[in-house]
Hints:
Blueprint: E1 14-21, E2 26-37, E3 40-51, E4 56-68, E5 76-83, E6 92-99, E7 102-110, E8 115-125
Antiparallel strand pairs: 1-2, 2-3, 3-4, 5-6, 6-7, 7-8
Amino acid sequence: MRRLGLPAREDQHTYFTVWGLASSGWSLAKADYNRLVGTDLTLCQIIVIIDQSLHVRVLRKVPFQKADADVPAVTTWSPLDVAGVDGDGHVDVIFEGDAYEDHWLEVDSVQDESSYTIFSGLGYYL
């Protein structure tokens, strides 16, 4: 998170979520910093895959930044599920993208040394 600009003094506001996937041999981890003071929102986020050899591959990242809490001009990500989506026998990561009133789904195929988006769509807004 520091490489994304998160100040050291803000460490205590970072939350972690880890999904261990025994069948795939890797783990999905999310570090999320989010702090609201008045109408000022500061945030930072990273979602990674960690394989059995402890190699880390970044799937999504949001550098440390300030935004208006009422109308943030930034896209944040949430992993929704890990499943085989396209029938190729590999596990895929399903994300929800959130950019103020716009929301959509993306699916990343995660294979040995690479990952890439295989689907992006179904956008909706509130």
